[in-house]
Amino acid sequence: MRVAVIDYGSGNLHSVLQSLKTATTRADLPHDCFLTSSPEDVRDADYVVLPGVGAFADCARNLAAVNGMMDALNEAVMIKKQPFLGICVGMQLMAERGLEDGETPGLGWIDGVVDRINPAPKDGLALKIPHMGWNGLDLLTSHPVFAGMASGDAVYFVHSYQMTMPKDDHLIATTDYGGRVVAAIGDQNMVGTQFHPEKSQGVGQKLLTNWLNWKP
């Protein structure tokens, strides 16, 4: 199985790649995990990962600047229905649009908008933005990629914006940071995590292993 991690200049690429390779080794999976900026590699991949670190608008522009990549992504994920994992801004790009630095179109795969987190004060003190550090998950539904995980499991976040959705149909997990913050979403062959599984130690490795074994 070929696992393509898309290199578009907007991600913690090497950490993601190394974590995927570690997951394949520990689970004894014959997967080939690799970085690529080639649309053809993405079209031919069995699994596709879209990482992302930074501003939504910058990441969207960088992705669009890779000639043919948007079409290849849509073909692999929406037509061929290959398993897809979006991480942090890679998850946010699944939305219809982002409101960071103006309004920017996303991939439009999920009915949602990416907007700034507005946490309520805690104990009379304002919570810091970006939301950075370990927070417990609240799992709202069962999903194969989250098998063996439980509410309360801590994962690592670094973000100032989150996806908001008109309905909870695609919501897998939230976390609490001065209010409900979307932590994970899913639809058919797609999963997105606002948190970084590659930085979430054992819980993150469990999620990546589940995803690499997933056959939606």
Characterise this structure.
With 216 residues, the chain is α/β, with parallel strands linked by helices. The protein has one domain (2-213): 3-Layer(aba) Sandwich (Rossmann fold). It has six helices and 14 strands. The strands form three sheets. Strands 2-1-3-4-14-13-12-9 form an eight-stranded mixed β-sheet, with helices on both faces. Strands 6-5-7-11 form a four-stranded mixed β-sheet, with helices on one face. Strands 8-10 form a two-stranded antiparallel sheet. Strand 12 (171-176) and strand 13 form a beta hairpin. Helix 1 crosses helix 6. The longest helix has 14 residues, at 13-26. The chain is globular. The mean pLDDT is 95.
Distance between the termini: 15 Å
Main sheet summary: 8 strands, mixed
Q: What's the CATH superfamily, by name?
A: Class I glutamine amidotransferase (GATase) domain
Number of domains: 1
Biggest sheet, strands in spatial order?
2-1-3-4-14-13-12-9
Shape: globular
Chain-averaged pLDDT: 95
* Text of the CATH class: Alpha Beta
CATH topology: Rossmann fold
Low-confidence stretches: none
